[in-house]
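step=encode ok
step=design start
structure_in=
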């Protein structure tokens, strides 16, 4: 297989470059997290992951942020997956004082330029609240479900850092989104 054309956006850390204290990985075909039932599926999975790490780290404060981040990234992965037979990979890794959430899916390469432009502008935005309001108004006006408010909320309200790895292989691009969540409160 040919080596993919790779693009990193933001402060992306490959999962094999970190010495993790622990990791939990789910691999599931996009078809099993159907778009029709995504709200239920993603919430069940996100709830499990939040509770698991809350207990593992003995840190109640992490559950709500982790739940929101996992649910949002899973929804995006399934919604933007190229085909139902592609695997969606969800990996949570614990490293020292942060949780790293990796969500990987396969997307249509033809849609990547628009996506890249949005995430680059998102990471460069100084006023996330202003961007949030602007995108909300645009989505309401166009009646579009593609508001991208979830990614803005992850940065704005959940204090996570986002980064992406795009691996292009012809018509298919594997998109790995990384959310880094600082763990607070355990020893405070």
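sequence_out=
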């Amino acid at each position: 297989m040919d080596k993919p054309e790779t693009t990193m956006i933001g402060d992306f850390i490959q999962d094999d470059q970190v010495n993790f204290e622990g990791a939990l990985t789910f691999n599931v075909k996009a078809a099993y997290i159907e778009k029709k039932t995504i709200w239920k599926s993603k919430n069940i999975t996100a709830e499990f992951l939040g509770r698991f790490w809350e207990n593992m780290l003995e840190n109640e404060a992490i559950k709500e942020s982790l739940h929101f981040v996992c649910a949002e990234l899973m929804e995006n992965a399934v919604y933007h997956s190229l085909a139902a037979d592609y695997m969606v990979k969800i990996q949570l890794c614990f490293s020292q004082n942060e949780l790293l959430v990796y969500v990987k899916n396969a997307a249509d390469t033809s849609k990547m330029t628009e996506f890249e432009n949005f995430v680059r502008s998102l990471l460069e935005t100084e006023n996330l609240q202003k961007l949030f309001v602007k995108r909300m108004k645009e989505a309401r006006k166009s009646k579009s479900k593609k508001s991208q408010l979830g990614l803005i909320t992850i940065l704005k309200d959940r204090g996570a850092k986002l980064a992406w790895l795009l691996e292009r292989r012809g018509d298919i691009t594997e998109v790995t989104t990384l959310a880094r969540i600082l763990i607070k409160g355990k020893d405070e």
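step=design ok
step=annotate ok -> The first strand starts at residue 5 and ends at 9.
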